[in-house]
Design brief:
Distance between the termini: 23 Å
Largest sheet: 7 strands, antiparallel
Helix content: 25-40%
CATH topology of the largest domain: D-amino Acid Aminotransferase, Chain A, domain 1
Bound molecules: 2-(butylsulfanyl)adenosine
CATH class of the largest domain: Alpha Beta
Oligomer: single chain
Shape: globular
Radius of gyration: 29 Å
Length: about 675
């Protein structure tokens, strides 16, 4: 590239493809072509750092965490909206508008009220200069560095005006939110409550790497001082749409009461068609002059109102309560319900959190209960709408699996079975967790199989898993030669593939999560070495040694120490050692590596052994998966790659690269 003008044209080209993809959802080039353009842009910027402009698509990412979001004071306050919940209240709003306009009936726009997080974007000469939160309306926070990370936010506008201030909502798509929560559930992490809180929390994350992991989008729905670019609201949204900004749906226009109420009802039916959660509609007077005439109250504009939809909840009957004992000994109640439809699935169980909650709700068998889905996936009981005839549900006194007296740990709400390494339910849970995706990731070793091998007496603890033979499995129901051999092979594979940190986490020691397992494993490198370190000194010294590791606090250190010294645990750990399960942890260099957060599928014939290629990807922080899904970032296709994989990649919009492409990613500057 020889001139900066050519560079700027390339910036424009890539930004335009970003807009087509992220704003219009209608890309005009393939991902591979896009990647090629993007890489060329990066290369030019490396060669001519002085040409670089802030609105280049490469410049979205900040790398260093911020410590604080500066406050910004705005000229025009971000007001909130008055709410209505029914036709009657809406009619009053309509009548107030007409009266305020001396009998003129205004045109209204009826828009989805996106359940997200309010944001204000400022563009000066077409360039994004500020993204601010609502804050108290007048004073917000400058979250520009994080908002720049959202690819639906244009950094540069087409057909710009001198100054443009637009307001909108940052939101998460329902499907992306549910997928994120499902992944968190599988990884044993706490679930996010709802898309709105999660979007709000995410945009205020201090660490841009964390922000990038949260799938967020933006929709704009108001132009501040819109009369400078159009005479009415709908026309102003059209104008900014022409500038490349993603705008709210504004196709419902109403010029009288009948049209208004018809538009409202039409949206009620279309509520589920949108990819994001609506909590209602916003009804706005279109004409800016009429808006001025109507004015505002201290808190709300008089020209707009929210029409809130009822929350998505249903009632059903409580049939019984089952007590579960998890792998950590927590004894939790689960409600068995008369099956009922809720947000697209049939629900027959609901979580009640804990026994305090049972008491608070005053549950009786036969109750009519109101339920909703928390975090889009887990149904839970909110309240009793009609008491049932049955007895009040009482908290159990003993564990139904091992008859131990249940205890309540100080400061914790959970009821516990204290028989940690002896209770059959906890043992079963521990084995299930060990074999699961989140744990040692043994393919085909799900809950049903665990139950079978435990029932048959083949497995009594996690170490026994590694002694299973195909002959033993053949004796079990539903196992044939192939499936038995596959499972034995999967166990061997998991044993080879696991790192020490994964093994440590899979053991299910209380408070030793997957994140903290890493630095612990980094320090001791092997389970045998960790055990030797514990044995070499008294408890208090070893606990102190553990506490020197960054992130390891007293609870983690004490629990790990207690586990290593527990007689029952020792038996299992000795068995693991005798079976040669003692993987070594690789020294970290990959955290925040160039491929962090990316998932690869490697296929076809490559010039290097596939295992080596996988190792290199992992060493750079990437993940390697076996099959192509929508979570895959890249398919690395060697010679003679099968058609099925390529078709799967196409279907999920996965970028296909060859070995050279992978090489380029591996050697790219961190980012
Ligand atoms: S207009 C003065 N339009 O709802 C009018 N707001 O409860 C400003 N919201 O703070 C708001 N979708 O965060 C408007 N299409 C839409 C909206 C919308 C969601 C949010 C917004 C606002 C809140 C009011």
């Amino acid at each position: 590239m020889s001139t900066q003008a050519e560079y700027l044209a390339l910036v424009h080209e890539v930004a335009e493809h970003d807009r087509r993809y992220h704003v219009e959802a209608a890309p005009t080039i393939s991902d591979v072509e896009y990647d090629t353009l993007y890489k060329r842009l990066e290369a030019v910027e490396r060669a001519h750092p002085d040409w670089k402009v802030s609105w280049s698509p490469t410049q979205r990412a900040g790398h260093t965490p911020v410590s604080d979001f500066p406050k910004v004071t705005r000229d025009v306050a971000m007001l909130s909206l008055d709410n209505t919940y029914n036709e009657e209240d809406l009619r009053q709003f309509f009548d107030r508008c007409v009266k305020g306009l001396d009998g003129d009936v205004p045109v209204f726009s009826v828009e989805p009220k996106i359940d997200g997080f309010g944001i204000e974007l400022t563009y000066v000469d077409g360039k994004l200069t500020l993204a601010a939160t609502r804050g108290d309306g007048r004073i917000g926070e400058d979250v520009t560095s994080n908002v720049r990370l959202l690819r639906s936010v244009p950094l540069s506008l087409a057909n710009p005006v001198e100054k443009l201030v637009v307001r909108g909502e940052i939101y998460m798509r329902k499907d992306e939110f549910a997928a994120m929560n499902a992944a968190r559930l599988a990884a044993g992490e706490e679930l996010f409550k709802n898309p709105r809180n999660t979007a709000a929390g995410s945009i205020k994350q201090m660490d841009p790497a964390e922000v990038k992991k949260r799938p967020m989008h933006v929709i704009l729905y108001e132009v501040v001082d819109g009369e400078r670019i159009a005479s009415g609201h709908i026309a102003s949204l059209e104008r900014i749409r022409g500038m490349g900004v993603p705008v709210s749906r504004h196709d419902a226009k109403a010029s009288n009461w009948d049209e208004l109420i018809a538009a409202v009802h039409a949206w009620e039916h279309r509520r589920d068609d949108l990819p994001y959660e609506l909590d209602g509609l916003v009804i706005k007077v279109d004409d800016f002059a009429q808006r001025t005439a109507l004015g505002r109250t201290a808190k709300f504009p008089r020209w707009a109102i929210a029409y809130k939809f009822p929350a998505r909840q249903v009632t059903t009957t409580l049939k019984s309560i089952t007590t579960y004992v998890g792998r950590t000994g927590a004894v939790t109640p689960v409600a068995n319900l008369e099956p009922v439809e809720l947000s697209g699935t049939t629900v027959s169980n609901a979580s009640v959190h804990n026994w305090d909650q049972v008491k608070r709700l005053g549950l009786r068998i036969g109750d009519r209960v109101l339920i909703e889905k928390a975090g889009e996936i887990i149904p839970q009981i909110l309240s009793v709408t009609e008491p049932g005839p049955g007895p009040v549900v009482e908290e159990p006194k003993t564990c139904r699996f091992c008859q131990s007296d249940l205890v309540r740990e100080e400061g914790r709400v959970a009821l516990l079975c204290p028989n940690r390494l002896g209770c059959p339910a906890q043992k079963l849970g521990a084995i299930e967790f060990f074999a699961s995706r989140a744990g040692m990731n043994i393919d085909g070793f799900g809950e049903k199989v665990v139950q079978q091998v435990v029932d048959a007496g083949l497995v009594t603890d996690v170490a026994d898993i590694f002694t299973l033979t195909a002959i033993q499995l053949l004796g079990l129901e539903r196992f044939g030669k192939t499936s038995a051999n596959n499972l034995v092979a999967a166990i061997a594979k998991a044993k080879d593939a696991a790192s020490f940190s994964r093994l440590l986490y899979s053991l299910g020691i209380p408070n030793v999560g997957s994140v903290i397992a890493r630095p612990i494993a980094q320090k001791y490198r092997k389970l045998s070495a960790l055990r030797a370190a514990a044995e070499a000194k008294p408890s208090d010294e070893f606990v102190a040694e553990l506490e020197e590791i960054e992130g390891v606090g007293g609870t983690i250190a004490t629990n790990l120490d207690a586990f290593l010294r527990d007689a029952n645990a020792k038996v299992v750990l000795d068995k693991l050692a005798a079976l040669g399960v003692d993987p070594e942890e690789e020294v970290a260099s990959a955290a925040g590596g160039v491929l962090a957060g990316k998932t690869f599928v490697v296929t076809g014939t490559l010039t290097a052994p596939r295992a080596d290629v996988q190792k290199r990807i992992e060493a750079a922080g990437g993940k390697v998966a076996g099959s192509v899904s929508k979570k895959t970032s890249y398919l690395v296709a060697g010679a003679d790659t099968g058609k099925t994989k390529l078709e799967a990649a196409e279907k999920h919009g996965v970028t296909v690269i060859d070995e050279a492409g992978l090489e380029a990613l591996l050697t790219a500057a961190p980012g």
